[in-house]
Amino acid sequence: xxxxxxxxxxxxxxxxxxxxxxxxxxxxxxxxxxxxxxxxxxxxxxxxxxxxxxxxxxxxxxxxxxxxxxxxxxxxxxxxxxxxxxxxxxxxxxxxxxxxxxxxxxxxxxxxxxxxxxxxxxxxxxxxxxxxxxxxxxxxxxxxxxxxxxxxxxxxxxxxxxxxxxxxxxxxxxxxxxxxxxxxxxxxxxxxxxxxxxxxxxxxxxxxxxxxxxxxxxxxxxxxxxxxxxxxxxxxxxxxxxxxxxxxxx
Length: 250
Ligand SMILES: NC(=O)c1ccc[n+]([C@@H]2O[C@H](COP(=O)([O-])OP(=O)(O)OC[C@H]3O[C@@H](n4cnc5c(N)ncnc54)[C@H](OP(=O)(O)O)[C@@H]3O)[C@@H](O)[C@H]2O)c1
Prior knowledge:
Oligomer: single chain
Radius of gyration: 18 Å
Strand content: under 5%
Bound molecules: NADP nicotinamide-adenine-dinucleotide phosphate
Structural class: mainly alpha
């Protein structure tokens, strides 16, 4: 099998996984964080779980990228920098901001996340640094410029919202977050994450990037809906008009 055929196969597998994930998560809420519950096998500390789960995205991506023929070219390097800016933070900064009281995560969740991230890192790194073609002029293409700007905006929303939630958590448990995008949606951190990967898909203009953006939506939309359901059940005063993830829409 040629590598181009393998790449197409992985893209199709990720799209298939997105459909399966979306449908499953509408019925079964992933059992970590506030939705943690017994019956999912051995568990691992939240910090270790996040590092284990996300390491393939940070380290695996970097290793595969470094093997590609285009690894030293400007545009692939710029796309790599966007990816790594997100994943170095997610793998090596975010877990250390989690409060000590964070609930443990089922090992199965960390393992499933890590497996997905291996396939996703391979698919995107290989495309950017070898199978795809990105001349330096791509950096001035409106798709790259708009995509990179969306990525930066999404990252800022995501990190800021995560920071606010982590502060609440450290200050004494769960509470209704207020202010900014929190007044519009239950999970602005997920909204930011989604904007980031839509931006990345635009900047890379690849099926690999689009498949990952689709998977992110399939994963985070049902979880944001579950979060909003949880807020409504926990807090009688939770504002009814807040959407789950996309302001004014969803
Ligand atoms: N690309 C993807 O497919 C994907 C998938 C999953 C996550 N992520 C990203 O990973 C990050 C973390 O995800 P997550 O699912 O853990 O997000 P989350 O459920 O919003 O929780 C984020 C952190 O804030 C705490 N928290 C949330 N709401 C709170 C509230 N109302 N009061 C007090 N504390 C609160 C949580 O504590 P507890 O954990 O103890 O509840 C957790 O420590 C996010 O940036 C997300 O976008 C990406």
